[in-house]
Design a protein that fits this description.
This protein is mainly α. It has one domain. It has five helices and two strands; from the N terminus they run H-H-E-E-H-H-H. It has helices at about 15-20, 25-30, 65-70, 75-115, 115-125; strands at about 50, 60. Strands 1-2 form a two-stranded parallel sheet. The longest helix is centred in the last third of the chain and has 41 residues, at about 75-115.
Length: about 130
């Protein structure tokens, strides 16, 4: 798995699908495919995985709701696999978030513990 894009700075009250639709990535994916079949970075026959809050697009697969699945075993199986894939993605972003917060805390602590004269000396070193 690769993280190919990230969007930060949106208010937490905004839903993920709203934020996604406001990104350049979404605009590139919505554009008609190139002659080689690529949609932006996305190769032909590949797609992104979203949860049920996202609308279904050619490039974005989402699990079917319980009502949509009905008694269709194949659709239920596919939806289960999509939900499992989405959980993996959520765990990766959770790890990245923890790492990012840890780095931010360490940098903040380093800069706040530095004495003012040390900070001045650092700026004048060749």
């Amino acid at each position: 798995m690769r993280i190919i894009a990230a969007s930060v700075g949106s208010p937490g009250s905004q839903g993920d699908s709203v934020v996604f639709r406001s990104t350049q990535l979404f605009a590139e994916l919505r554009a008609p495919p190139a002659a080689d079949g690529y949609r932006g970075f996305l190769p032909p026959q590949c797609f992104l995985v979203g949860d049920q809050a996202y609308p279904l697009y050619e490039f974005l697969m989402v699990p079917a709701s319980e009502d949509e699945q009905g008694y269709n075993a194949a659709l239920a199986h596919c939806s289960r696999r999509l939900r499992n894939a989405r959980r993996v993605v959520e765990r990766v972003f959770g790890c990245v978030s923890v790492l990012g917060n840890s780095l931010f805390y360490a940098m903040h602590r380093f800069h706040s513990e530095q004495r003012p004269q040390d900070a001045l000396e650092d700026t004048h070193r060749p």
